[in-house]
Design goal:
Blueprint lengths: L11 H9 L6 H14 L4 E7 L5 E10 L4 E5 L5 E4 L9 H10 L4 E4 L10
Antiparallel strand pairs: 1-2, 2-3, 4-5
Helix pairs in contact: 1-2
């Protein structure tokens, strides 16, 4: 099998297996596995790609559909968390988080202490 960095073409099952073997996964790989788990439970997901002005892709994450709230929410595997509004209970989508930042409303992160910041080294 080619190097693990060669990514998503092997599918989420292989990615999960390699991660369970202790290999470090990047943000795109972890997001693909999370999206697959979510979809296996009957949910909907969509990819989020953060880019730079020069067109380079800098980071991947995922938005998941919350059936109870009838809205998308952003989940970042590197943070191992998500953003919420001022009440601290409503997960935010990318669009809602952007609006909160632009209007000066509160945007708070709910993150697991075991957050994994990706580094290529």
């Amino acid at each position: 099998m080619p190097d693990f960095d060669e990514d998503l073409r092997f599918g989420p099952a292989v990615l999960l297996e390699r991660m369970q073997e202790g290999l470090h996964a990047n943000c795109g790989q972890m997001s693909a596995v999370l999206a697959t788990f979510w979809r296996s439970l009957g949910g909907h997901s969509r990819a989020v790609r953060w880019g730079q002005p020069d067109g380079l892709i800098g980071h991947y994450a995922v938005e998941l559909w919350d059936v109870e709230r009838q809205r998308w929410f952003y989940y970042d595997m590197n943070l191992n968390g998500y953003g919420v509004d001022d009440d601290g209970t409503s997960p935010l989508s990318v669009a809602s988080g952007r609006t909160s930042l632009l209007t000066g409303e509160g945007l708070h992160l709910v993150s697991n202490p075991a957050a994994r910041d990706y580094s290529p080294e």
